[in-house]
Structures are given as structure tokens and as C-alpha cells.
Amino acid sequence: MPAARPPKSFLLSAELAGYLVAHGSPPDAVQLGLIDETAALGAVAGMQIAPEQGAFLTVLTALIGARRAIEIGTFTGYSALCIARGLGDDGRLMCCDVSEEWTAIGRRAWQAAGVAPRIDLRIAPALDTLAALPADTVFDLAFIDADKPNYTNYYDALLPMMRTNGVILVDNVLWDGRVVKADADDENTVAIRAFNDKVAIDDRVDAVMLPVADGLTLARKR
């Protein structure tokens, strides 16, 4: 069970993380199976979003009535599964990733969950996929959870495509607390700090940073 594993959030104890998951919409059998299959990959499984984060994605997607969504960074497909469930039968989610191997795990889970027809997986660098989209492309919701040095590039490419009141969600913005450690100067931490600073002063959006999992920014396009 996810509650027995270390929490994604450095702010939560394992006990509190388990309580939190149990008192929201807990993962179902398909999601638990996907969590287990991803965990078997080893340390890289840490890239999978937390169960409570998945529940948040489903609720928020449904809450804003999203029908057109995009995800940058799919990994083994847990976040895509959660977003697709929130879209409803007439919604579509475009997933951008570069790994056939990891996304193949997601494909099986999407099929088992009955959401595969809602998902359009594009295997290519996400910036290339975004650049090739028609000029009139519009999204209601976007989720960024990919290579950190490109966070700002993904955000800048996506924001013009978002509808008014559309939402961009960005994962790992607290980066295990390293964003506030003065001696943390690795490439990923520096990139996330720069991205966070950019969004904080961007007058095109209203933004809030939430202590969900490893930090989740929600930016609403004005």
C-alpha cells in the first residue's frame, strides 16, 4: 500500500502521509497495481507522483470542467491516469514523453482503467511537440513534471495556449526543501528556483504554491 512507503513530501511523516491518503479518495486497484509495478523499477520510481497528488489532479480537472489537457512528462502514467479520469468521456489528454519503455507501463494501466481512448501519447521531446501544434490550439489544464532545466521553457510555450482561467500545474517546486538551502547550487535546484521566481512575478497569472507532495504550483491564466 502507498501509505507504507516513504512519503513524497519531506514535510510529512510516514504516519501522517498514510492518514492523508486514507482520508481522501484512495488509490483503486488499477492505481495500486501501477504503483507496485513502478516501485519494481527501483530508485527511478521516485519520479512517480504521490497518491494524494493524483487524487488532487482528478478532482481539480473535474472541478474546472477541463476537456482539453496536456501533460509534460508522463513516466509510467499515474498522473495521466488521474487527469484522464477527471476529464470525462469527451475529454482528451495529450501526453508528452520520450520513453517508450516507461510509458508502455502507463498504456497498460490506462487500458485497464478504461481511459486509454482519452489519451494521446506523443513520444518526442515535448518542446518539439508543442512547437508543432496548430496555432489555434487551446488547453484547459496543463501538468508539468519533466526535466527541471526546461521548466521555464515548457511554461512559456504552454501559457499562450491556455484558455482564460486555464490552469498550469507544476510539480517538484520545493525540490525536497533544497530551494531554500543557500548551498544547494546543482543544476536542477537552480533551475527550479529560477522558475519559481519567474512565476511569482508573472502578471499573466495568479499563482499559489501548495505543499502537496514535493511542492505543487498552480498558476491560473488571467
Using the CA coordinates, give the radius of gyration.
16 Å
pLDDT below 50 for ≥5 consecutive residues: which ranges?
A: none
In whole angstroms, how far apart are the ends? 40 Å
Percent range for β-strand residues: 15-25%
Question: How would you characterize this protein structure?
Answer:
The protein has one domain (2-221): 3-Layer(aba) Sandwich (Rossmann fold), CATH 3.40.50.150. It contains 8 helices and 7 strands. It has helices at residues 14-22, 29-39, 51-63, 78-87, 100-113, 126-131, 151-158, 187-200, and strands at 68-72, 92-97, 119-123, 139-144, 162-171, 205-210, 216-221. The protein has a 7-stranded mixed beta sheet with strand order 3-2-1-4-5-7-6, sandwiched between helices. Helix 2 runs antiparallel to helix 5 and helix 3 packs parallel to helix 4 (78-87). The longest helix has 14 residues, at 100-113.
Can you give keywords for this protein?
single chain, alpha/beta, Rossmann fold, 8 helices, 38% helix
What's this model, at a glance?
This protein has one domain: Vaccinia Virus protein VP39 (Rossmann fold), CATH 3.40.50. The chain contains 8 helices and 7 strands. The radius of gyration is 16 Å and the shape is globular.
